[in-house]
TrEMBL record:
Keyword NAD set for record: yes
One Pfam family from the record: Aldedh
UniProt key word Oxidoreductase: yes
InterPro entries assigned to the protein according to its UniProt record, in alphabetical order: Ald_DH/histidinol_DH, Ald_DH_C, Ald_DH_CS_GLU, Ald_DH_N, Aldehyde_DH_dom
Enzyme Commission designation: 1.2.1.3
Root EC class: oxidoreductase
Domain of life: Eukaryota
Domain Aldehyde dehydrogenase: 28-493
Protein name: aldehyde dehydrogenase (NAD(+))
Family indicated by similarity: Belongs to the aldehyde dehydrogenase family.
Any GO MF annotation of the entry: aldehyde dehydrogenase (NAD+) activity
GO biological process: carboxylic acid biosynthetic process; polyamine catabolic process
Record keywords: NAD, Oxidoreductase
Amino acid sequence: MSDLIQELTAPNKVKYQQPLGLFINNEFVKSTSGEKFATINPANEQEIASVYAAGPEDVDIAVKAARKAFKDASWKDLPPTARGKLLNKLADLVEENANTLATIETWDNGKPFMHALYVDVAGTASCLRYYAGWADKIQGDVIDTTPNKLIYTIREPVGVCGQIIPWNFPLAMAAWKLGPALACGNTVVLKPAEQTPLSALYLATLIKKAGFPPGVVNILNGFGRVAGAAIASHLNIDKIAFTGSTATGREIMKLASINLKNISLETGGKSPCIIFEDADLEEAVNWSHKGIMFNQGQVCTANSRILVHEAVYDKFVEAFKEQCKNVSKIGDPFEDSTFQGPQVTKAQFERVMSYIESGKSEGATLALGGEAYKDVNGKGFFVQPTIFTNVKDEMKIYREEVFGPFVVISSFKTEEEAVRRANDTTYGLGSSVFTQDIKKAHRVARNIEAGMVWINSSNDSHYQVPFGGVKQSGIGRELGQAGLHAYTNEKSVHVNLA
Ligand code: ADP
């Protein structure tokens, strides 16, 4: 074991080399201060490893590396097809190392291994491959004004991009940010969340192996209010892309205003799911259960507010409870049959438990769950899948994002009421509608104030499709072709032919 790399054996017996340093210029280095922090396995509360924490000086070193790389011919003049090849190579390496990456993700985050492997890691490779394909298809326009002028536009990379990502999908969030940024020719300083620092460091080894020039991707672990704030406020960073809570997004926007950074934010949600009386109830239960309970409820688009037509309300609530009992199997995330692992940290566990208390004290009915769950050793940050009914619109549990296996189910009488109440929120990220009436489905889809509407499904996002929010759920779009716009500036060139 050295200070910068450590051989680890995960609970599933996978042995691998875990980097611990800051990844700058394709090398792992110690932080200037030498400060480290520990990361915890949320399933048994034991420490996994300690990694180096970046301070403002380290951010500055990484930004200089990224700026140098941005201007260096090895990246600047690399043909777009070659950029795409590098991203494809990285996707290949992610696939080759899928078992190790999924192991790290499960160990550090607590998510079930099967989900880590088939959703997170598979999604990471797909996203990188998708943007690899875009690298040589980024084009400007020719604009016809008068016969005496030739006007064309060039889509140029924005420059050095600061990317601050959350802990709920550590690898996939890195891919959503790196894919488009690199396809467009930017360079990056990425900060993973301090709750889940490990998988991005392993990804860094693959980035180097894929052949990206030094300084193109720099990955710095560290605390939000230190390293994150230093990135958001750095004068030599051109763009900031952030995914996380609305409160932190607001803070980042303020910090980024110092040099008017190009900004994209994907923040919180309290996404409504409207179930009409004519819906296929079994399908609605299947999708809405996954839509809130998947990933321990730690999904920004989770359908955390379910509104059900009064005619089918009781039937739906009963079926949803049964679904939780039958499908939401809690336990060791390395067990193949586990659907629900622990919340990512003690702080998140306590947050969910405090909302359970709030629901009880505000007088909602606890229909299922509401308790912590411990493993055989009495450990782990697990929470039972929890359902509250008889919820009033002004209750905290109806209005605030809980980010756990926690759902409120309420009834409505008319379509007008359902849409009005669905929209009665400061958020506008996901939403879903269940009905067999296609006119009603599309009408409601238009009337909902959200960045995304799922009709007769929930949360089956896809890397080809724009993802993002309205209102206080964010600014800009990730994924799809739209995701490229966040990483290019369009330059207009006017040629006088007169
Ligand atoms: P959570 O509240 O769930 O921890 P956050 O939105 O605070 O989520 O965190 C998401 C990401 O933002 C993490 O990488 C975190 O370190 C970072 N972050 C937190 N606070 C700040 C801040 N003040 N400035 C920049 N980044 C921050």
